[in-house]
């Protein structure tokens, strides 16, 4: 799938996928608004925010990201698939303090590939700031990456902003059809 170009602005739809309460919404808000809210409200269906960024290559490109935060609760699985169409990339998010949140990502990947094809995916281990509560090891992450043939991952904190911009910007680099 190619990117949409309008008024010399490249437009990319990306999705944030993963179980409920892993921090998808807070990561999106940290990236788009530079803010964090500790109040948890489950996403119902999908929330969408946009952000324009600049990518400098041989020339400067304006890129508008349409970021879709997909509801993570299992009861939404049957209809959330429709949100995957026309996506250009994925941030696949799990909670470093909840082992099941990493295991649940296998189903998400299968569903994404079924609808959107083999688009770029970055694995995100969120809540890296909660070091004393962390239960998922780097070895477990590496095993997951190898099993699913995903090459890029980040450990992030929506609270402190650690690696949040880097993860989004790396996904843009992976999606961008220009050098």
Protein model, in words:
The chain has 179 residues and is α/β, with parallel strands linked by helices. The protein has a single domain (4-175), classed as P-loop containing nucleotide triphosphate hydrolases (Rossmann fold, 3-Layer(aba) Sandwich), CATH 3.40.50.300. The protein is built from 6 helices and 7 strands; from the N terminus they run ββαββαβααβαβα. Strands 1, 2, 3, 4, 5, 6 and 7 form a 7-stranded mixed beta sheet that branches. β6, α5 (138-148) and β7 form a beta-alpha-beta unit. The longest helix has 12 residues, at 105-116. It is globular and about 45 Å long. The model has no long low-confidence stretch (mean pLDDT 88).
Task: Give a brief description.
It is built from 6 helices and 7 strands; from the N terminus they run ββαββαβααβαβα. The protein is an alpha/beta fold and 179 residues long.
Instruction: Report how far the terminal alpha carbons are from each other.
Output: 17 Å
Number of strands: 7
Over all CA atoms, what is the radius of gyration? 15 Å
Question: Total domains, how many?
Answer: 1
| Overall average pLDDT | 88
What is the helical fraction, as a range of percent? 25-40%
CATH level 3 topology: Rossmann fold
What is the CATH architecture annotation? Answer: 3-Layer(aba) Sandwich
What order do the helices and strands follow? EEHEEHEHHEHEH
Low-confidence stretches: none
Major sheet details: 7 strands, mixed
Q: Briefly, what CATH class?
A: Alpha Beta
Structural class designation:
alpha/beta
What's the number of helices?
A: 6
């Amino acid at each position: 799938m190619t990117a949409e170009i309008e008024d010399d602005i490249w437009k990319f739809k990306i999705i944030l996928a993963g179980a409920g309460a892993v921090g998808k919404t807070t990561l999106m808000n940290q990236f788009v608004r530079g803010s964090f809210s500790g109040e948890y409200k489950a996403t119902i269906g999908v929330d969408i925010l946009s952000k324009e960024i600049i990518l400098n290559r041989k020339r400067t490109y304006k890129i508008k990201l349409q970021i879709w935060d997909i509801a993570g609760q299992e009861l939404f699985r049957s209809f959330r698939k429709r949100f995957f169409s026309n996506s250009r990339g994925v941030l696949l998010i799990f909670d470093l303090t909840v082992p099941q949140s990493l295991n649940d990502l296998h189903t998400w990947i299968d569903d994404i590939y079924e609808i959107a094809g083999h688009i770029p995916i970055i694995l995100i281990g969120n809540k890296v700031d909660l070091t004393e509560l962390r239960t998922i090891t780097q070895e477990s992450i590496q095993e997951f990456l190898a099993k699913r043939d995903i090459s890029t991952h980040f450990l992030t904190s929506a609270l402190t902003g650690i690696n949040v911009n880097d993860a989004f910007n790396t996904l843009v680099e992976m999606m961008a059809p220009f050098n």
